[in-house]
Q: What sequence folds into this?
């Protein structure tokens, strides 16, 4: 049986652990910070090294590596297919700044997320409509859908409730002036002589502001 000098083995293990720590640190700094949740044993000169301590270190490092989010890189691009990316969740909504040098492209940007409780055209203005949508979709960024967002939603095959308020954000005369769509004067009026944008379930239209309808909400 061949025996090895204990100090020699310790030096090898020390270099291995330091090298592994450096490699992990380099990798996580280059990609994303990952905390090691577990025990990392350290060794001193003259200490008896136990296999269980070495195995514990390997187990902790393995867990940290496996918890690195699975970013998928293709050429100069990277995607994160496993879920969403949330920025600055500990501060108030929209407090973080994300700078993009180029174009943001997404098939689900600004699409229907649900409908609010019913309300007439007097819903507290645009901010009041947003507040109802925040509650409906459970997200601080939810808001009343615009015509553009509803069009995207339908193109993507997303089902949108019918007879529901939305915001075309334009003033228009329909049927030779018999219907004056003023968005219920900015959604502060419940007058039966005024009109606001209403999605019929098939296309955009207009409905009188005195009728209670849900709001089409988008994210």
A:
């Amino acid at each position: 049986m061949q025996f090895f000098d204990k100090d020699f083995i310790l030096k090898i293990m020390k270099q291995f652990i330091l090298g592994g720590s450096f490699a992990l640190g380099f990798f996580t700094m280059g990609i994303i910070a990952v905390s090691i949740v577990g025990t990392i044993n350290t060794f001193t000169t003259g200490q008896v090294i136990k296999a269980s301590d070495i195995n514990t270190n390997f187990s902790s490092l393995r867990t940290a590596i496996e918890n690195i989010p699975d970013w998928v890189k293709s050429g100069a691009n990277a995607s994160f297919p496993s879920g969403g990316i949330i920025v600055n969740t500990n501060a108030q909504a929209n407090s973080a700044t994300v700078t993009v040098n180029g174009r943001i492209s997404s098939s689900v940007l600004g699409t229907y997320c649900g409908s609010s409780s019913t309300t007439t055209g007097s819903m507290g203005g645009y901010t009041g409509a947003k507040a109802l949508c925040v509650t409906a979709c459970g997200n601080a960024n939810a808001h009343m859908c615009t015509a553009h967002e509803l069009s995207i939603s339908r193109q993507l095959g997303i089902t949108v409730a019918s007879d529901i308020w939305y915001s075309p954000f334009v003033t228009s005369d329909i049927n030779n002036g018999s219907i004056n769509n003023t968005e219920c004067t900015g959604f502060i009026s419940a007058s039966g002589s005024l009109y606001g944008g209403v999605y019929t379930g098939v296309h955009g239209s207009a409905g009188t502001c005195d009728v209670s309808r849900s709001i089409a909400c988008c994210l």
